[in-house]
Structure formats: structure tokens, C-alpha cells
Prior knowledge:
Strand content: 25-35%
Catalytic activity: Hydrolysis of terminal, non-reducing alpha-D-galactose residues in alpha-D-galactosides, including galactose oligosaccharides, galactomannans and galactolipids
Low-confidence stretches: 1-17
Signal peptide: 1-20
CATH topology of the largest domain: TIM Barrel
CATH architecture of the largest domain: Alpha-Beta Barrel
Number of helices: 13
Mean pLDDT: 95
Bound molecules: alpha-D-galactopyranose
Protein name: Alpha-galactosidase
CATH class of the largest domain: Alpha Beta
Strand order of the largest sheet: 9-8-7-6-5-2-1-10
Shape: globular
Distance between the termini: 33 Å
Number of strands: 31
Pfam family, one: Melibiase_C
Family: Belongs to the glycosyl hydrolase 27 family.
Radius of gyration: 25 Å
Amino acid sequence: MAKSAVALLGLMLCCGTALAGPSQLTPSGQWTAYQHGAAATPPMGWSSWNTFATNISEDRILGVADAVVKTGLAAKGYRYINLDDGWWAHRRQPDGRMQIRADQFPSAAVGGAEETSFKPFTDKLHKMGLKAGIYSDLGRNSCSQAYPSPDGYLPKGSVEEREIALYGHIKQDVTLYFKTWGFDFLKVDACGIRDYAPGSERTKEGRYRVLDPLIYGWNLNNTNIAGVRDLYHQVAEAIETARPNDDFIFSVCSWGSSDVRSWGKNVGNISRTSDDLGPNWSRMLHNFDSSARRPLYGHPGGWNDPDMLYVGYGDFDAQHLTEAKSHFAMWAIINAPLILGNDIRAMQGPLLDIVGNSDVIALNQDKAGNQATIAFDAEDVQIFVKTLANGKKAVAVFNRGQGAMDVDLTAEHLKLAADSDITLTDLWTKQQSHFRKETKLALASRETKIFLVDGKRRLEGGFYLSEIPGRVNPAEDGVTVPMHDPLVHRHQAWIGTHGTGAHPQYGGWGGAQVDQTPYGQTIALGGKPYDTGIGILSNSRLEVKNAGAKLFTAEVGVDDSTPDKSAPVIFSVYGDGKLLYKTAPKAFGEKPESLNVKVKGVKIIELVATSTASVVTAWGNAALVE
Length: 626
Ligand code: GLA
């Protein structure tokens, strides 16, 4: 006790407030990423927004639900049928009970226009073997009120009656949605805490009440990050109270703003990492990158969400099957929620085969929950590798560009032994092929080849931590000042080419990475490069779920790329909250220290790196050995 108090005081004195506080660095012996809810694997289903916008009705939604069952998609796992924006009529005064647009949802009029209920609607979905989702916003008003849709299906009545979102009503609304109406899924948007500033278009003539924004566009430094996180946390708590059996999904939708890419994993089951997807290849790359570069921030229980699928529309329609397959395969392998957005009533043929490909779905739903990691990275081609629960692998080779590409796939990319016989099973054609060391794959423009992989692992008796990101949680990643991530593809903005173009939008730069430094460099310790390891800033704490391994091994030190070379770093390994090993302070340029720490019987291993400065460090070759 006394020792840790001194250590805490030391940290506070030495590091000021910018570095991670002692409480974040103190081992808890717990897995602290979100564990409530029913998201052991990424949620699958359909949402109304991409097809209907606010023009939703009972007839349309139940028609789609019926098609989801009849096409066989429900049996393949697509269970959630989610109402997005547009279901609300008004908030009844003075008791604040939400009312439904009964003209569009006739079964809701259980007691006339002022006593509506979605219970008959959710009952119908449940009887079909499906789950039901609903939508709200953190503020007083919604996104459709901020950006009126052309059909104008907006809430009606006085200013108060049109305040249909959660602000000031979190408990009341959440209880109504989950307990009384029987919904199983809630998506919570954030326009209400961004778009209703004093003097804004919406509040100017008293149309809507002012709510001082917590989110300032993409400006991280002006955004009240803690305030946004706290409101989402309040919603999570209300849902947990309403659904103590954990039968729910909480979808956080703050579009990558407010540094949510770092903390969404602690608050909800899925968390949007970017602005809205559109039916457009370039936009798809943007949304994909926002999640794909964050494998350590998605785990069973809380997944990175690059937005609902656009298969069926625009660049991903029946005339663009190559693109549709790429979009679907890449969402699947990075463990994105598979929430379809197209009109399933009209879905047939090859498009249906793509989203119904059971082998690709199985990768997404693999229970180990390891998001694929980047084994090769370039603007035009990427290779993603995912470790499955049975220890085998999957690989997706993704041609992002316009031209055909020849791609070398190597045993190293797969972290398989150099002398291994490797079998690839193509998940589209089901054909098998074999190679040793490397093979050449010919990819058409925008094509993705996706395979199951069988071969001898490079680390035969265990797993590198970078192979099992689903079991590694950066509880504290050492980022002191949130900064925009420059590595997310910048697409042409919504407003065409007016203005100066797209800028990096989302916080998260400098967060923990697999097989590279937090800033995307090759890991190198004392002059020795590593293709494997966890790169992370100092004053960080990683939680690792152990599943029977006896030994934790790593080579640790200050990374050669660190901008701040001034301060040494101490690396500590904890087992279920108890210190197991601690290095001497390691300085810049020093040879890495090899760790061999016994972890037999330990459930949660914690890896803590402390320093008086913010230093780039690495747990090189970090592994759990059986
Ligand atoms: C935001 C969300 C979308 C959708 C719309 C509804 O833009 O990001 O997914 O819910 O609002 O208005």
C-alpha cells in the first residue's frame, strides 16, 4: 500500500497532469473494456437508414424483416432489425413520454395518438425470431432535425414536444424502449450535442432550444471529450439497469469525433469510428481505414464500427460485384458489425450470395474476436491477417486501387514458419491452393481475395500478442494530447470539391498498435528491428487475457523512433494485480531486455510502461507461450 502511494505521488510530481494518471496505470487484475450486452461476436442485422432515411413505416420495416427471414439471411445470423431516425411523433407534455408516428406505424396506436406503443411491433419481430432496434440521440434533438430530410417526416408540435432525444430523459426513455416497448438494440447519435449552438441555423428563430455543444465539429481540442463520454456512459448504465440480463446492444454513434476511437470500447458494444458511409468506393476506404487501423480497440463485447453496409447501392450494386465483395469481405475480416442497409425485399442473385457467404460470415463471427491486423500496408494494396479461435488464420488481400495488381503473399505476412506447407482455401470459389514461402496472387482492380489459411505457426507453442488483439486491451494507451489520425483515407467531402478538401478528422493518432510503433514505423529497439510486437507510448497499461499460457515473453525497450529521448522507461508485468517482474529503467538506444515471466494460472496479465516523459516504447515479440 505504502509503496504504491509513494509511486503514485512520484508520478504526479514528476509528470504533471498531461501524462496518464496513476489510477489508469494501477493494475486492477480486471478486464476493463465493455462486457455488458450481447456482443460476444459482432452484431448482424439490417437498419432502415440507407434505404428509407426518415420515410419509414411499419409496412416497410416488417416487409424487410420478412425478406430477411425468407432469403435465409436471418438463419445466417442477420437478426437485428433496426429502426433508425424518423420514428418519432413528439414528446408528450407534461409527462415527457415519447410518442410514435402512428400514421406510419398503425399497430402503435394502442390508446390513440397520445398513448402509442411499439410493443405490438417488437412482438411481431420477436415472433419472427428476430431482434428489434431503435434509435435516439444524446442531445434534445436529432440529426434529421439538424439536417432535414427532403420528405420532411419530422416531429411535430411545440419546441418541447419536438425535443425527442435523450438529453434530460435518459432513464425515462431507455426504460420505455427496453422495458415497456421490448427493444433489444439502441443506437445513440450525437447531432443534438453538436448542432444546436447559440446562433446556429436551427436555434436562430427559436425553432429549437439552444444546447451548448459538447462536440465542435472535428476540432478535438474544443470538444468536451469527457462530457461526451460521460453522457454515453449514463446511457449505458440506464440500459444495463433496464436489461439486467445483458440481452441488449448499445450502439455508440459519435462518428469518430471526441476521440471516441480510443474510449468507445469501454462504453458500448459497437462504436462508430467515422462519419457516415455512402455508396461510394472512396468513402468506403475512408470508413474502412477508420476502424481497420484500430485492431487493439475492438474485442468481444465492444467492436469498431465503420458504419452500416452499402452493399446493393452505387459502387456496390449488382453491376459492381467485385466492389460489393470487397466491401463485404473487408467489413467481415475486421470484425465490423454486419448491418445491411439495402432493401432486402428486392435482393436476389449474386448480391444475396455475397452477404450470405457463410464462410465469410464465419470469419466475422469467429468467437476469438481477433480483428484482422495489417500485415502489408500501402495506399493501393493491403494484406490483412486474422487469427481464428481454432488457431488457424484467414487472410484478405485487398486491391484498393484502380489498376490490376500482382501481390506477393508470404509466410512472414501470415506469421507462419518459413518451411511450412501452406494451404489457402478461397472463400469465394472454395478452391484450394498450396505454397511454401510465398505465392503470387493476381488481383483485378478493386478485387479482394479472401482465404482460410492452414500452416505451421511461426511461434508454434503459443501466440504473439499481435496475433490475438481480441485479448489485448489498451486500458491506458499513454496518449497525452489527442491528435488527428493522418492515416485515414481522405475522400472527396460531402460538399464536392468546394473548400480546401478533406482533412484528418478523427482522434486516436499515437494509440497502441500491433507490429508497428504508435506512429506507424517499424519497431526497433537498440538498433534491432522487429516485425512483431506491440508499439505503445509510455505511461500505458495493457490488459491481456490469458487462456492457459505458462509464460509471457517479450523484448522491451525504448523505440529507436521516439521523438523524446530524454527519459528512461520502466517495464512491469503484473499477474491478476500482483507485480511479477519489473525491469531497471531502460534508456534510449539501450539493448532491449528479454522478459520470461511465469504466468501459469494467471487470468489477467498487465503490461505497464512508466516514464517521466512520453516516450515511444515497444513490447517486441510479446507472446504467450503454452
Ligand atoms: C447520423 C448517423 C447516421 C444516421 C443519421 C440519421 O448521420 O451517423 O447513421 O443515423 O444520423 O439522421
